[in-house]
Design goal:
Elements: H1 3-11, H2 27-33, H3 35-47, H4 51-71, H5 94-97, H6 110-123, H7 131-163, E1 169-174, H8 183-193, E2 195-198, H9 209-222, E3 229-234, H10 242-249, H11 252-256, E4 259-265, E5 284-287
Parallel strand pairs: 1-3, 3-4
Antiparallel strand pairs: 1-5, 2-5
Helix pairs in contact: 2-7, 3-4, 3-7, 4-6, 9-10
């Protein structure tokens, strides 16, 4: 779908509003990191009628929200080179979170444990008709935790990749649009991150191998300082490509004299990376790091 057609249909939608002065908040953070706490507050109001009890539960919800949304990510450690190591605290052990740690964990984090303590408390106090909503909120927050954990790890991979750059290399980030943003927002991001952006619109609605390859090849033809090698991070999952894209990429060195050293695929919705700062901004970013 072309941009003009998309904007025309958007204008006629009753359930979608186009903001001309705002970026789009990461959907996972909105759906799971915000609305889940609104649901917990509603459950609390429907369950606890005495003011002291209600205030106590609301304080627990606020403390849990503060930890999950602000402090949890700070407690996770990733080395400067992007690698992760065993942590004796099971709540902070990234290898364990990714299912790749079989060592003993002999400590726990009291702040992280408040998640399980809170839901244990709520299970023993709420009414039966509120149980489904409570379980749904718990599942959403667990997904939010997984999202945050993966985001910390992937952000570190981005930073680790930057440390490997030299005068001959560049990092390219392919970011597939999920929302339409004003030109001013894109320019602001370009200035802040000191990057060169290339924006592609296509009538082909599929993020397949040919769309991806054509977007990159269009950039290769116009960039002023062509790198000798590149690393790529893409927010569309590898299942879009299979062997077709790899067959095309194998010829890039021959066609454009550009060596592709590695390609990191992020599954859609898996995690947003540092470069788009929790906002879908532009299609292809080319970092000027020469």
């Amino acid at each position: 779908m072309k941009k003009t057609s998309f904007m025309g249909r958007l204008a006629n939608c009753s359930n979608i509003k186009y903001w001309d002065d705002m970026d789009g908040l990461c959907l996972t953070y909105n759906d799971y990191g915000y609305t889940s706490f609104e649901s917990l507050i509603a459950i609390a109001h429907n369950t606890f009628w005495q003011k002291d009890q209600l205030n106590n539960v609301l304080q627990k919800i606020d403390a849990l929200k503060h930890h999950l949304r602000r402090n949890y990510e700070r407690e996770l450690m990733v080395n400067a080179d992007g690698t992760i190591e065993h942590d004796s605290c099971i709540s902070h052990c990234l290898p364990y979170a990714f299912g790749d740690c079989y060592k003993i964990h002999n400590s726990r984090c009291s702040k992280c444990d408040q998640f399980f303590e809170f839901f244990g408390f709520m299970h023993s106090h709420i009414k039966e008709d509120q149980m489904t909503a409570l379980e749904e909120a718990k599942e959403h927050l667990q997904y939010f935790l997984a999202h945050s954990t993966q985001k910390v790890y992937l952000n570190a991979q981005f930073k680790a990749t930057l440390t490997t750059l030299d005068d001959d290399g560049a990092l390219l980030v392919a970011n597939y649009k999920m929302r339409i943003l004003p030109k001013s927002a894109r320019e602001t991001k370009a200035e802040f991150f000191e990057i060169k952006t290339y924006d592609h619109w296509s009538s082909d609605t599929k993020q397949d191998a040919w769309f991806t390859a054509s977007a990159f090849e269009a950039v290769f033809e116009v960039i002023k300082h062509k790198p000798k090698w590149i690393r790529i991070i893409s927010d569309n999952g590898s299942h879009y490509h299979s062997s077709e894209l790899m067959a095309i990429v194998a010829h890039w060195n021959e066609w454009y004299q550009i060596e592709v050293r590695d390609w990191l695929f992020l599954e859609p919705g898996e995690a947003k990376i540092t470069i788009d700062s929790h906002h879908a901004a532009v299609s292809v970013l080319y970092l000027l790091l020469f």
